[in-house]
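Sat 14:20. Reprocessing the chain from the morning session after the first attempt stalled halfway. Input below, unchanged.
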Amino acid sequence: MNRGLLIVICMGIVTACSPTSQEFPSKPITVIVPWEAGGGTDSLARAFVNEAAKVFPVPFTVVNRAGGSGAIGHSSGMTARPDGYTVTMITFELCSYKPLKRAEISYTGFKPVIQINEDPAAITVRADSPWTTLSEFLDYARAHPKEVTVGNSGPGAVWHLGALRLEKLAGVEFTHIPHDGAKPAVTQLLGGHIAAVAVSPAEVLQYTQTGTLRCLGIMSESRFPELPDVPTFREQGIDLVHGTWRGLAVPKQTPDEIVAKLEAGFKETFDSPEFQKAAQTALLGLRYRGSAEFTEFLQSESETIAALLEHLEL
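Finished this time. Tokens:
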């Protein structure tokens, strides 16, 4: 009898200590940002948690764990305790680590909770270039293989991959010029050292507004609000939607009921006017996908990137 009583007591203790049996959340939640403070991902995360703290009955803390092109922070979040109290702001690079052989981590190590952002790629040239439309630009590139130089933010980075996808769809060959970030690439374009850049429209906005640069097309489903006269690629006959994205995820073993609570609270946070305004002010695109849709998107995105990089030497 004593042995049986002991077993019952032990089972009760285990049940009481289980994270799914307690009221979640009951303590502060940490959000890991795999990039340095002050960047777009960090700014988005901090704006989001400011509003999330109004939805959930606990405070939020942002922790920056940069390094390895985001691999250190992503790995830290993936291997955290799966109790819902450590959330990671995952980014596009999560889909490229394995194909680039940079880290053995991918979206499959997480349970995606919610996508909150998407920023498209765009092709931009100097305003005094001979190309006034995307069609003219591609026709020239088709007739002059590898002559057109296209700057990007680094080999294998999101904007480089956008230009590679365009090559395959349009049947052209560019000469890709890598830079240490989008800003140096844009500087080289302004100086006339390269023919075009593949970066986000936000990163060339000030120069397109002053008439120094010309954006030929945006790889998005809809037009960029600050550049309403620039058509999307689809509007110009090329079925290409590509860009960077950001979302929130937890370790794979996190219980589904905890993920559901986070998803519901994060959706309310995403919909708050304060967060929407903060993102728009920072020119960060808003894109909502719930847990199931976000998971499907990540699978498709990972397969696309892996196929694109399969035979690419970087």
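Residues 291-309 form the longest helix (19 residues).
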